[in-house]
Amino acid sequence: GAEVVFSVDCTKLKDYFLPEKREFDCIYFNFPHCGRKAGVVKNRELLAHFFRSSAEVLTEEGEVHVALCNGQGGTPADQPRREWHNSWQIVAVAAGAGFILSNVHPFKAETISGYKCTGYRSQDKSFCVEGALNHVFRRSLPPPCFKPTICKLQLEGQKVSFQVPQVLVDKINRGFLELNSNHPVRTVKEKLTAELSQAFLVQNLDHCLSLLHQGHLDSVCHSNIFWISLSPEETPSTEEMSNGLANAAFFPHVDFCKDTDEAGSVTVREGCHISEQYYLRPSLLPDVQAVIQKGAFLPGTLHVLSGPVFRKCRIAPYSMPVFHEVVFACAVTRGTENGCIQTLVNGIKTSVRSLHQTVSGLKLSIHLQEATSFGTTELSDFAAFESQLSKIQYFICMDVDTPDSCEKSCCVGIIRAARYELVSTELVVVFASLNLDLLTMLICGIADWRMLWTSDTRFLCQFSRELRLFKIFSLYPPSYEHDVSFWLPDGEQFNEVTFHTIARQVSGETVVSIQLIDSFQQPETGRKSLCYRLTFQSCDRALSRQEVAEMQLLFRKEINQCLGVTLR
Predict the structure, then answer these.
(1) Three-class SS state of 247
(2) pLDDT at position 366
(3) Which of 144, 166, 421, 500 has the fewest CB within 10 Å, making it most exposed?
(4) Residue 248's pLDDT is what?
(5) What local confidence, expressed as pLDDT, does residue 49 receive?
(6) How far apart are CA 136 and CA 100, in angstroms?
(7) CA distance 169 to 146
(8) pLDDT tens per residue across span 192-245
(9) Which GO terms describe its cellular component (predicted)?
(10) Residue 250 pLDDT
């Protein structure tokens, strides 16, 4: 009862079907080939045209199935795997049409009723399909379009506005910790709090947190901070309201304000009487001190503060420019702080181990490690930054597997005790700070921190207020390498953190690695040249070769303008 159409050009599918018949749920292409001794380049071109054609006639939730002989696809599923340049590079080719690989499994001709393998050199002779694979593709989210986001709020009795740093536009006001959120980060926080509530009286203080902090950070490297340029509020016109309202980020006491230019340094417009420098909060620990100073700290009660924090950092697997922090703080009588620390740690250990075992069925190693046992070079960006903020007694560590199959101790939190005279001379405040994002990754088997921030519903639909092992929906995403070489400006220090932050911004967080591969200094002039290799790869959407090339060009332009380097 099926309609069969012959002589269909797979690169022009919409030409063969009326508009009302173009909504296909599945498109199958078994063993595509240009014919005769066509090389891999021509067959890649065939696939590229086919995928673009399929995108025009496929439903939003539809699938494209492509069967290839063993080794042709160029993915790790091929055994043995061909060299990349000698394969059809099917995942990268499909990405050019907006598709991601969602599944790959053996092609078994015997399971298809009436199917017969023919076509070997146009003879009535089957060709070898042993080890052949069926590749299943689905549509990806389109490339993101990040527009400037403006916020306004009340500071020192004055309404001011600021432009959100471009690298954070898609991460501001996501509401992961809100009551109606199903995000796994919130679930981990709720499970931790529930476990600790069995040993402490718990009070949540999230409502009193400020997005901005002010003042000078003597112990913290200023290049690691997102400094904010404040401007006095101006009433937006009707046209500006209609054009820009969608780009406003809303927080408690934050409204819409018209666009202002983003500045790299801290400046305040004439007429704005704010005396201190402001920055996006890099930690919630200062908020603990603010609560204590206000006298809102109840002795014996475990106070819980949580929210996103923001830090400029280098690009690395567990290095995040924004993550959700939770702080548990309790004031106890001096001399009993060690007992409080032990109770707090035991509650955290019990909760995390239970969650991990429920999700993966495996036991997890989580332990305390004295801060003095860590060398400076061994600290992760998270741990190193916390060390700058305050003196740490213990790191909370979990053992994780690294990409090179080695086991490594990963810091997910810190413990310290401090005496605050404003509470009482007889009281000591004990607090634990945890990186909720990193904890969630390790518990749910999420290898890439960027996945926590994806807008793709295929991520969040896996978690309905219950934690489970994450199932990857974009397999073997293609990666692309580009090198950039430049002369450093004379007499100026090169800021590598800023260099990495620019890469994050222009690529939309698709740069996963930056490696210094060469350094050269001219003997005659003393001029220094650096060469870096950037690796681009997306964890949740299609990333094409052309898109990456455009990002690389923009990156070159930005580092020239922002860092004053001379491109080579």
Answers:
(1) helix
(2) 78
(3) 421
(4) 40
(5) 97
(6) 9
(7) 7
(8) 999 999 999 999 887 667 888 887 666 677 888 899 888 776 544 444 434 443
(9) mitochondrial matrix
(10) 37
Distance CA 8, CA 61 (A): 23
Cα(496)–Cα(85) distance, integer angstroms:
32
- CB–CB of 48/93 below 8 Å? yes
**What domains lie within the chain, and their CATH numbers?**
13-139 (3.40.50), 175-210+278-461 (3.30.930.10), 480-567 (3.30.70.380)
Q: What are the φ/ψ torsions at residue 75 (nearest 5 degrees)?
A: -105, 165
Q: How far apart are CA 568 and CA 566, in angstroms?
A: 7
The answer to whether 521 touches 530, Cβ cutoff 8 Å, is no
| Burial annotation 33-58 (CB, 10 A radius, 16+ → b, else e) | eeeeeeeeeebbebbbbbbbbbbebb
Q: Consecutive 10-residue runs of the chain (568 residues): their mean pLDDT?
A: 90 91 92 86 96 96 95 93 93 97 92 74 70 96 87 76 90 91 95 94 82 74 85 54 40 34 35 59 86 78 94 91 94 87 90 89 74 54 61 72 57 74 71 91 93 95 91 96 96 91 96 96 92 97 97 97 95
Q: Two tokens at 35?
A: 């014919």
pLDDT of residue 421: 52
Q: C-alpha angle 296/251/203, rounded to 5°?
A: 30
Q: Mind listing the pLDDT tens digit for each residue in 408-466?
A: 667 887 777 776 655 566 788 888 889 999 999 989 999 999 999 999 999 999 998 78
The Cα-based distances of 238 to 99, 127, 245, 259, 461 in angstroms read 40, 68, 10, 13, 38
The answer to whether 26 and 103 are in contact (CB under 8 A) is no
Residue 21: partners with Cβ closer than 8 Å, 6 or more residues away: none
Residue 256 CA to residue 271 CA, distance in Å, equals: 20
Tell me the CA distances in angstroms from 361 to 355, 406, 451, 561, one per residue in order: 9, 20, 22, 51
- β-bridge mates for residue 368, sequence order: 396
CA dihedral defined by 151, 154, 155, 159, rounded to 10 degrees? 80
CA distance 400 to 395: 15
Alpha carbons 556 and 568: distance in angstroms, whole number: 10
113-126 per-residue burial string, b: 16 or more CB within 10 A, e: under 16: eeeeeeeeeeeeee
Q: Return the pLDDT at 242.
A: 42
Place of tokens 């898609």: 170
* pLDDT more than 70, % of the chain: 82
Sequence-separated (6 or more) residues with CB below 8 Å from residue 93: 44, 47, 48, 51
Please state, as a whole number, how many other Cβ atoms lie within 10 Å of the Cβ of residue 477: 23
Q: Are 152 and 256 in contact, with CB atoms under 8 Å apart?
A: yes
- The residue count of the chain comes to 568
Q: Is 57 helix (H, G, I), strand (E, B) or coil?
A: coil
* CA dihedral of residues 12, 18, 22, 24 (deg, nearest 10): -100
442, 410 Cβ separation under 8 angstroms = yes
